[in-house]
Amino acid sequence: MRRRTVTAGNLEEILQATEPAPAAERPAAPPPAPPRAEDHGLRTEFGFELPRGYVDESGTVHRHGAMRLATARDELRPQIDLRVKENPAYLSVVLLSQVITRIGAVTDVHAGVVERMYATDVAFLQDFYRRINSEGHTRAAVTCPHCEGAFEVDLSGGRLGES
């Protein structure tokens, strides 16, 4: 920022020197641009498909869900949770319950929901969490055991057999 110093004999001269030009002499300002949504290209929510699925109280199986990127608060909050202090293995349950935004029709995902999931689904979600928060994507490099060909698969899932 440049600072402008004005020296004048009196206050009247300073006011005249800094007075804005009359409206007729000023160039017309362009019309304001319509507001647009900022798209920074940052993906913050990732869809997934559970290997087995979460079974709710009514017996409905929910397989598709979404997980958002974790914040520093998400990673710090479980450290003060009494359940985690008593049993450090509970950390992943609390952490997953904070970043999973939905599982099927279930939008209130809390630690009790994660506790009732099958172990294979929790292991899948732990790996999914690590991938999107450490690596920034859901792809994994794999090698075909038959032809030794290397390729990538998307772990977020799709139809059966695609993840």
Task: Outline the structure in words.
The chain has about 160 residues and is an alpha+beta fold. It has 6 helices and 5 strands; from the N terminus they run H-E-E-H-H-H-E-H-H-E-E. It has helices at about 10-20, 70-75, 80-85, 90-100, 110-115, 120-135, and strands spanning about 45-55, 60-70, 100-105, 140-145, 150-155. A 3-stranded antiparallel beta sheet has the order 1-2-3. A two-stranded antiparallel sheet has the order 4-5. The model is unreliable at about 160-163 (pLDDT under 50).
Radius of gyration over C-alpha positions, nearest whole angstrom:
28 Å
Q: Which bin fits the share of residues in helices?
A: 25-40%
Helix and strand sequence: HEEHHHEHHEE
Spans of at least 5 consecutive residues whose pLDDT stays below 50 are 158-163
Strand order of the largest sheet: 1-2-3
Mean pLDDT, nearest integer? 79
Q: Based on Cα principal axes, name the global outline.
A: extended
Structural class: alpha+beta
Task: Report the β-strand fraction as a percent range.
Answer: 15-25%
Largest sheet: 3 strands, antiparallel
Number of helices: 6
Number of strands: 5
CA(first)-CA(last) distance: 55 Å
Question: Which labels suit this protein?
Answer:
163 residues, 6 helices, alpha+beta, three-stranded antiparallel β-sheet
Produce a short descriptive summary:
This protein has helices spanning 11-18, 72-76, 82-86, 91-99, 111-115, 119-135; strands spanning 45-55, 61-68, 100-103, 139-143, 150-154. It is α+β, with helices and mostly antiparallel strands and 163 residues long.
